[in-house]
Design goal:
The protein contains 15 helices and three strands. Strands 1-2 form a two-stranded antiparallel ribbon.
């Protein structure tokens, strides 16, 4: 019974992680027409996070006890998972090609693997490690890293900062799946954590993006999508409801059911999904190396997913959240292609 339940749990976790990656991956397709219509990329990011934060306010109120019980977790989640990744990512693409920044940011799954192995001193499967290597190599082809590479140390460091923020995202998600011990009756509710993360992230991004300087009239017009005019408000709704609220919620819930290395590799599919949607909806055709790279990423994700994760050997985690540490999405997430207008 327990084995069957574990298999079903991993299957559900994988499905949620894939849904999260798909939702995150679609955000760039919706954001790019808005940016081409005249909106600043940081303003699009702010609209995305602030809109999602408003929608999640009832959830935040329901779990208002988290403010008292887990203030550090909520602040860290908002700073790293929501605001940090996006700020570093957009700063990096101002100095280096988007593809290079995206690839560096997606080194986060490999960094998570190192965290699990060398910091938490927990074993990782060989298949998971192979999956990470294949996924990163495949992403190099998907983003065509050899095109227009310009070595800019500061730009690369900024992109690495985005990757490190993702690691913080994964580690905080892992912490959120553990029992708090002491006065805490159990682990904090994952959806409550993401609600407050969005609120904190929106507050931080308000200072960075300065939305009071935005041309709000653009939201009442239309944006071009592969030759078709689409209402700007519809694209914004896509970004807020699907690419943020749905993506984060499914991603955080899936954390409880997958190991950090598996969820991290599944999150890499976001880049493939984003590229595929751009092909269909924006007419941005894939090259042969990109198609091959996408296949390699899928292969890496499958290999890692098919390797049953080993349970932690020490008091690192407990309960249903044991071993969880990455959100697909994004997880990999929103975190890059999902936040980037590419």
């Amino acid at each position: 019974m327990q084995a069957s339940s574990g298999i079903q749990g991993r299957g559900a976790g994988l499905g949620l992680a894939l849904l999260s990656a798909f939702a995150f991956g679609g955000s760039g397709v919706a954001a790019k027409p808005l940016i081409e219509a005249g909106l600043d990329p940081l303003h699009v990011v702010w609209l995305r996070v602030a809109g999602a934060a408003v929608i999640m306010l009832p959830v935040a109120w329901r779990h208002r006890n988290l403010v008292r019980e887990r203030p550090a977790l909520l602040a860290g989640f908002g700073l790293f998972a929501v605001a940090g990744v996006q700020a570093f990512y957009f700063a990096s693409i101002s100095r280096i090609p988007v593809g290079v920044a995206l690839l560096v940011e997606y080194l986060a799954p490999a960094l998570v693997l190192g965290w699990v192995r060398f910091v938490q001193r927990r074993p990782v499967t060989r298949a998971a490690a192979v999956g990470v290597v294949l996924a990163v190599g495949g992403l190099a082809c998907v983003v065509e890293v050899w095109s227009g590479l310009k070595f800019d140390l500061l730009g690369l460091l900024l992109a690495l900062g985005a990757a490190c923020c993702q690691v913080g995202y994964f580690v905080l998600s892992d912490h959120g799946g553990q029992d708090g011990g002491g006065e805490h009756a159990g682990p904090p509710h994952p959806v409550g954590v993401i609600a407050y993360g969005l609120i904190v992230g929106a507050a931080v991004l308000t200072v960075v993006a300065r939305p009071w300087g935005m041309d709000w009239s653009l939201l009442g017009g239309s944006a071009g999508m592969n030759g078709n005019d689409v209402p700007a408000w519809l694209l914004l709704g896509w970004i807020v409801l699907l690419a943020t609220v749905l993506a984060y919620v499914t991603g955080v819930v899936s954390v409880r059911l997958l190991s950090p290395q598996v969820a991290g590799v599944v999150a890499c599919l976001e880049a493939v999904i984003a590229t595929g949607l751009a092909w269909v909806l924006l007419g941005e055709h894939l090259s042969a190396p990109q198609l091959i790279g996408g296949f390699v990423v899928l292969t890496g994700a499958f290999i890692a997913q098919s390797a049953a994760p080993k349970p932690p050997s020490g008091p690192v985690a407990s309960g249903d959240g044991a071993g969880a540490g990455a959100v697909a999405g994004a997880v990999g997430g929103e975190l890059s292609g999902g936040r980037a207008p590419h």
